[in-house]
Amino acid sequence: MRLDRYLCQTTDLTRSQARSIIRGGRVSVGGAPVTQPASQVDVQAEVTLDDSLLSPPLPRYFMLNKPLGVVCATRDPSQRTVLDLFDVPKRNALHIAGRLDIDSTGLVLVTDDGQWSHRITAPSNHCPKTYRVTLAEPLTAEQVSGLGAGLLLKGESKPTKPATIEKVSELVLLLTITEGRYHQVKRMFAALGNRVVALHRLSIGGLSLDQSLVPGGYRSLKRQEIELL
Ligand code: URA
Predict the structure, then answer these.
(1) What residues contact 207, with CB distance under 8 A and at least 6 apart?
(2) Domain range for residue 99?
(3) Which residues line ligand 1 (CB under 6 A)?
(4) pTM value > 0.85
(5) Do 194 and 142 share a structural domain?
(6) By alpha-carbon position, which residue is closest to atom 7 of ligand 1?
(7) Residue 197 and residue 170: Cα distance in Å, rounded?
(8) Which of 4, 12, 84, 101 is catalytic?
(9) Which of 63, 99, 185, 200 could covalently link to 106 via disulfide, CB atoms 3.0 to 4.6 Å apart?
(10) What is the pLDDT of residues 55-106, one digit of tens each?
(11) What is the CATH number of the domain that holds 15?
């Protein structure tokens, strides 16, 4: 991690304050002063500011039960964002590992560990995501086979990867997909002539939404949950 970032994560300094303090020679790594804000520092290294030892920044991992009407963005000039729901220090260091639409609900992962979130969102990792989908029209056998075979979405040339479906009722199903294209679930059903009226994410990889979380509620992930992904 860059030294200026390390300082921002372990103190209340802004990035520009951190840079000028580092340039001023007040920060040492492993006992030696370092004056380059861009120097790389190991998170395990002993870093001092004016001789006080800084505690290493620990990456944080949360699951959120996203409510309706909140945008999956870190900042938005006019709408409430998922980060606005978090009452934690250094909230602006957090980011979202896989977005949901404003009118979708359910599991959203939030972290400040970029490598972890990349593993979840990188298309090459094909991380499965399961959604409870409520449809406007009853699901037909042709639609089930279309989803299983892969569909050509409007404006795209490559079909979707086969999805798995578990029918819950005429209008409700559990759908698992291994991609994360723009508005993918809604567009898949639009391609089949149906329409999604409610979309709730239940799981990402092996991690399921904690059913005790009310909409807008969040909690830290346990060690074994972080490792699942
Ligand atoms: N697919 C969608 O269409 N919307 C979401 O929010 C997630 C997946």
Answers:
(1) 63, 107, 109, 221, 225, 228, 229
(2) 61-123+210-228
(3) 100-101, 104, 183-186, 199
(4) no
(5) yes
(6) 100
(7) 13
(8) 101
(9) 200
(10) 777 789 999 999 999 999 988 899 999 999 999 877 888 999 999 999 999 9
(11) 3.10.290.10
